[in-house]
Amino acid sequence: MTIELRAFDETMLSLTSRWLSDPELRLLTQSPSIDREQQMAWFKGLEARKDYAIWTVVEAGTAIGVMGFKHIDQDSAEYFGYIGEQLWGGRGLGKQLMDSAFAIAAARGWRTISLHVLADNFIAVNLYFDKGFRIVSASDGIFYMTKQIAG
Questions:
Q1: Which CATH class is domain 3-148?
Q2: Where are the domains positioned within the chain?
Q3: What is the pLDDT of residues 14-36, one digit of tens each?
Q4: What is the pTM of this model?
């Protein structure tokens, strides 16, 4: 299995809305509940944003998740990503997401990637440790992690 990153377009809005209606995924991604109008306003603002980038994660021709960066500046960005299609969970795709994130970061010249994750999301925490992230702080059950990117 190999993932592909494609442009995040309007057709993805209904998928992300469906995925994030799952209370467990919304908790794991720490995503607020938003309505269709709020989602459209967010989507329409994406093109003008320089501090945010998002892609559709595709495997075998099927959109299965999203990944991206927020709080982008010249040297760093905060990673986010998830597999929304439950049938694709547990297949090691998180490692591929991380490798894609590192390649994007290196190409853009970022020196640091950060992220935050629920401390009890053991699968994700272990993945991030395996990929070289380290905890820099913890608060309210959330680990704040960073990784230096070789330049």
A1: alpha beta
A2: 3-148
A3: 888 888 888 888 888 888 888 88
A4: 0.90
Q: How many CB atoms lie within 10 A of CB 132?
A: 15
**What one-letter code names the amino acid at 3?**
I
Among candidate residues 5, 20, 11, the one with its CA nearest the CA of residue 85? 20
Q: What is the per-residue pLDDT for 20?
A: 85
Q: Quick check: 56 and 9 in contact, CB under 8 A?
A: yes
The candidate with the shortest Cα–Cα distance to 82, out of 11, 9, 18, is 18
Cα 90 to Cα 65: distance, rounded to the nearest angstrom: 13
Instruction: Label each residue of the chain as H, E or C.
Output: CCEEEEECCCHHHHHHHHHCCCHHHHHHHCCCCCCHHHHHHHHHHHHHCCCEEEEEEEECCEEEEEEEEECCCCCEEEEEEEECCHHHCCCCHHHHHHHHHHHHHHHHCCCEEEEEEECCCHHHHHHHHHCCCEEEEEECCEEEEEEECCC
Query: Sheet containing 76-83: which strands, arranged edge to edge?
Result: 3-7, 52-59, 62-70, 76-83, 112-118, 142-148, 134-139
User: What's the average model confidence in pLDDT over 82-104?
Assistant: 83
